[in-house]
Amino acid sequence: MFEVARQGSFSGAATVLGYTQSAVSRQVAATEAAAGSELFERLPRGVRPTAAGEVVIRRAGRVLAELDGALEEVAGVRDRFAGSLVASGFPTATAVLLPRAVARTRARHPGLRVALQEAASPVQVRRLRAGQVEVAVVAVGAGLPAPDLDGLRAETLHVPRGSGVAVGRAHRLADRDVLDVEDLVGETWVAGAGPAGEPQFGAWPGLSEPHIGYEARHWATRFGLVAAGLAVTVVPGLAADSVPRDVRWIPVRNPVVPDRALLAVTAGAPSGAASALVRAIREEAAALGAPATP
């Protein structure tokens, strides 16, 4: 229900969740039968929630949130979240999001030890299925391998802050608070050169004949080139807070957004500790770039 509403289509929801379109359609039809009302309006291209659908989505979201909290509390009573847990993410996710989520989880559950691994998304999913990892943060969508999520639990994470560009402190654009795509014409770019399965970032999407001057696998190298004034680089909002002191991250107005999604993936029936970590990941993702509370 929720993913169908977010994506605006059964096929889009199926891609993100790792199910077939027919399976998603059957689930929606069963929910409509139980509700006794049509919950989605079928359009020539996609679907949108009806008034009844909006009510069900809103109230079901509250119920599921309460259920998640209850499961965490029950698990906490049972094992007090003692022991160890292994989580993983692709490099951009492990730069800021996952460390903050681990810290938040440890503050809530001091008896829980969380180990952190870094790997490409397909590798993470294989490790999760093998029982080597309990929580994986993966990227799916355009230009990325489609991991097999069948039978797993996947939650879409929403990051308020979009992508931007990292420039050196002495760069001509360094004093700007926001950029337009036109401001980036003529720049030299350092692009990512990681293994298959990791989201890579080249020049800013939409630029005509951009100049790729460097390629580097590790973010430390990319930021080093940027700090030295040799290039600029695309940095997603997910990792904007990881730029070093001699580099400045600047958002770009009206960016071209790749058709990708960020997912927190667990086993179909995750442990209470895994659910607690996913909750922390969700909260930290929502806080990235969100306005500060007065």
Structural description of this entry:
Helix 2 (10-17) crosses helix 3 and helix 4 crosses helix 9 (272-287). The chain contains nine helices and twelve strands. A hairpin with a 4-residue loop joins strand 1 (40-42) and strand 2 (47-49). It has helices spanning 2-7, 10-17, 21-35, 51-79, 91-95, 97-108, 121-129, 219-227, 272-287, and strands at residues 40-42, 47-49, 83-89, 112-118, 135-141, 153-157, 164-168, 188-192, 211-216, 233-235, 247-251, 260-266. The protein is globular. The protein has a five-stranded mixed beta sheet with strand order 4-3-5-12-6. It is α/β, with parallel strands linked by helices and 294 residues long. The model has no long low-confidence stretch (mean pLDDT 86).
In short:
The protein has 294 residues and is α/β, with parallel strands linked by helices.
